[in-house]
Amino acid sequence: EVYFKNLSKQKQKEVMEKNGNNHKLRVCVATCNRADYSKLAPIMFGIKAEPQFFELDVVVLGSHLIDDYGNTYRMIEQDDFDIHTRLHTIVRGEDEAAMVESVGLALVKLPDVLNRLKPDIMIVHGDRFDALALATSAALMNIRILHIEGGEVSGTIDDSIRHAITKLAHYHVCCTRSAEQHLIAMCEDHDRILLAGCPSYDKLLSAKNKDYMSIISMWLGEDVKTRDYIVALQHPVTTDIKHSIKMFELTLDALISFNKRTLVLFPNVDAGDKEMVRVMRKKGIEHHPNFRAVKHVPFDQFIQLVAHAGCMIGNSSCGVREVGAFGTPVINLGTRQTGRETGENVLHVRDADTQDKILHALQLQFGKQYPCSKIYGDGNAVPRILKFLKSIDLKEPLQKKFCFPPVKDNISQDIDHILETQSALAVDLGGTNLRVAIVSMKGEIVKKYTQLNPKTYEDRLALILKMCVEAASEAVNVNCRILGVGISTGGRVNPREGVVLHSTKLIQEWSSVDLRTPISDALHLPVWVDNDGNCAALAERKFGHGKGIENFVTLITGTGIGGGIVHQHELIHGSSFCAAELGHIVVSLDGPECLCGSQGCIEAYASGIALQREAKKLHDDDLLLVEGMSMKEEEIVSAAHLIQAAKLGNTKAESILRTAGTALGLGVVNILHTVNPSLVILSGVLANHYVNAVKDVINRQALSSVKTVDVVVSNLADPALLGAASLVLDYTTRRIY
Length: 737
Hints:
Keywords: Allosteric enzyme, ATP-binding, Cytoplasm, Hydrolase, Kinase, Metal-binding, Multifunctional enzyme, Nucleotide-binding, Phosphoprotein, Transferase, Zinc. This protein is α/β, with parallel strands linked by helices.
């Protein structure tokens, strides 16, 4: 880690020397509207904070300067940025021609500005027609372009504009791994692509805990409570204006019927926007007691409003991108955002062609709370972007290079651009210890933390949060991008809700516990929870013997006996989340009592607790120790002593282990006859002691058609943590929208 940091500093030093020691990078940031300023402002603040490296020039154009859209240039001034140039570039009109004329007007005015500023690099954001004019002007004037949010996919003409800007840009900052892959597929130079995350997330992820009630009251009224109002933001779709106007009309009708206080923001400057405003006025939205219609809300206040809303509805990219950071329910209408990556908080209504469809979506989504999503960023985008800017060598040739197919299999950036490994936070709640680890996509445990598991619910939850926060902070230092949190715990778990329903007796005060909500709220990350046996099966499926196997069973042999069943590549949970409680298969009607209250369970014979019980009986009767064994007076008798005694020829210890192995083998035979897996994996500290006994019982007791099953010992060093990580890594990397 120290080596890579020093290497990075050395490269920055070399770049500064190449560019001239006294030369500061002159950066021009051009902003066209309220939406792109929310993404550019964090970068601008970062540039302004490092005057020893950068000079900042701000150019304002587009709808910022139009009164109908709130004169939003004022918020730039309020943020204490000096605006170098204001360009009036919007041609008033209500059709596509007005957008074309606006691009033409910007192209006429921009050359003079760029000639005066002479920037080393221009930062352009997104996919608006104004941004296309900026990128075209800069490219033709041999000015380097850094494009923010390239590679993403959505509906309408925005897709074409975004990709056109990508081809003009020299450097790219993208927000998601998929966007990075798209840029590479578009033949952009791998070394000039930075996966940084969305800059607005740097502000979003620290915003939710600020005072928000005064903001809600100011925009929606004194009587409005959190989670009891709606934010609506809908724009015209320029490739189908008529349909988008109709959809907006249906949306307003549904909102009126739904009868909740609603904040409606005016649409973007696009063909069709005036008609949408006329629809609002025709329906009396500006004077309706349940509605507040506004041209603009400052970004700091807007994020507080969406963070605490009962729902957001419309077709704005903000809904599918930024709002996921808060877990606020979103209804995405129409095709404007088709192809965007979204969190589970987004409900799509692609064909929003009736009021009833939209109303039903409101009924489904309003008031829900989803896990926070960090698909588009982790709050550390700006430091990465600034480092990326410092690494630019102005003496390199300006002409772009394209990397035509075949594309390299190993798609990565230079380490100096902060290469990050997709990783998970894994939590293992055992009877004795509480462990948290950073686990990479390849199953490498990058960092591990261990503490004694507290005895009370309050202390345990507080320690989990503390350890997770520390691990998440450390992840940045070890170049790991945390995708989510996976938790492995004993007992019966509802993985859909992230709730521990009933705990084992080994973990006290651990029933009816919601783990997902407090951890997701604290870390702004999605959280998955499952039973430790199921997690062991997931670990085998992703990293162990179960990889690529359609049907297999994992048995954990440790303090207790547990397991997981994978059928047709999917984990089986059962109707009440009680599937694969393999330790409680009864193999004898009059066997020893189990901790579950029954008799004759596998766990009562073969678990570490059962072996310890039998070892104590032998020790109390002075029948445990044999020649070659010794115990200190204060030493606690354990299963390990029983195993050691058996190895040294203690016939009674051997008999106990033989009975335990037979009980486990009979349980496995029952499993084979029930689900017919092709593989049985024994995991845990006792697995090596039982594997031969299990195979012998299968040969004696099983039907001939299942005797060929493979029985193997797991080769995973830490299946509990790897399984918890698999909850995250499997879900976040296989979702397709």
